[in-house]
Recover the amino acids of this structure.
């Protein structure tokens, strides 16, 4: 009897392109295992799963999260600027209201 499998997607957005791969993986596969199976780490050598955050449909998840049918695993890029600090800079550069 064949091992049960599920279909998942692995994606990673780059400034000028995107990586998107659909995989059939065994039931019980984790986020980390699926990313490794997808070939993303070879296609984009700068990704370090110890540093880059991962999520499923926009919600942060741990690497040991077990995947379900049709999950879309997203590997996020590091932030270039702290969003709070960027907002402070924008707010500080505006003239004060009279």
């Amino acid at each position: 009897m064949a091992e049960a499998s599920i279909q998942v997607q692995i994606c990673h957005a780059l400034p000028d392109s995107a990586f998107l791969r659909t995989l059939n993986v065994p039931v019980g596969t984790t986020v980390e295992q699926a990313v490794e199976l997808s070939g993303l780490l070879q296609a984009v050598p700068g990704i370090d799963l110890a540093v880059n955050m991962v999520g499923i449909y926009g919600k942060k998840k741990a690497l040991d999260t077990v995947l379900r049918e049709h999950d879309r695993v997203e590997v996020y890029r590091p932030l270039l600027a702290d969003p709070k600090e960027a907002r402070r800079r924008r707010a500080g550069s505006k003239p004060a209201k009279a």
Q: What stands out?
A: The chain has a mean pLDDT of 88. The chain has one domain: 5-93. The longest helix spans residues 83-93. Residues 26 and 72 are 15 Å apart (CA to CA).
